[in-house]
Amino acid sequence: MFDDRSPIYRQIAERIKADVLNGALKGDEQVMSTNQYAAFYRINPATAAKAFQQLVDEGVLYKKRGIGMFVSSGARDALRVKHRESFFAEVVDPMVAQAKAIGISLGDVIRHIEELEGR
């Protein structure tokens, strides 16, 4: 469910973003209400509301007054662009630095990745 690594509202927001990215939630699809989320995960509704507000601020969700919260139609593409921008800085650069530190050549790293891709 939730861990202690970050505030629960952030974990909720990240989980919803992951569902949008992997296609589990599609554009214009309705998401659970804050009260449903709070009841399902046994958390304070204000915590769920804070997560939803963050997602609205980021353009991932939008509100339909009196109806509920929905996934923005371009949310998946926007999230992909955002994740691609940070992928090299957060994943590849540290991996290359680590490989270099332990004596693995960039060529060996590339060969390994190509082998993984061929599986």
From TrEMBL:
The UniProt entry, under Gene3D superfamilies, shows: Winged helix-like DNA-binding domain superfamily/Winged helix DNA-binding domain
A Gene Ontology molecular-function term? DNA-binding transcription factor activity
Q: Which UniProt keywords apply?
A: DNA-binding, Transcription, Transcription regulation
Q: Where is the HTH gntR-type domain?
A: 6-74
**Source organism, top-level taxon:** Bacteria
User: Could you tell me which species this protein originates from?
Assistant: Streptosporangium becharense
InterPro entries from the xrefs? Tscrpt_reg_HTH_GntR, WH-like_DNA-bd_sf, WH_DNA-bd_sf
- The name of this protein is DNA-binding transcriptional regulator YhcF (GntR family)
Q: Establish whether keyword Heme is in the entry.
A: no
